[in-house]
UniProtKB/TrEMBL annotation:
It comes from the Eukaryota. The lineage of its organism: Eukaryota, Viridiplantae, Streptophyta, Embryophyta, Tracheophyta. The chain crosses the membrane at residues 38-58. PANTHER family: EPHRIN-A3 PROTEIN. Residues 1-22 are annotated as: Disordered. This is Uncharacterized protein LOC105132679. Keywords: Membrane, Transmembrane, Transmembrane helix. It comes from Populus euphratica (Euphrates poplar).
Amino acid sequence: MVLDSMITSPHRRSPSFRKQFPRDELGSWSTLLQRHRFLLTALALLAFLCTIYLYFAVTLGATESCSGLTGTKKTLCRLELAKDSVGNGKLKFF
């Protein structure tokens, strides 16, 4: 009988675990925010930078002036745009 009282199930938590983390503190939002403050800040910064990138990618993206054309006319239009973007062997950005 003495051995039975000393052997405990591995699924039972020790009293020291309960003292370390009170039940009401494990699930509170403030605890989660404190523990993951760095990750949440990095996620917010990443979302902000992605939003700025997408804004400029859409607004400064190449406008398709050949969108109404089809077939050979569209190919020739794209070829002219490519020729215009390269001047004197150097790529023109603006």
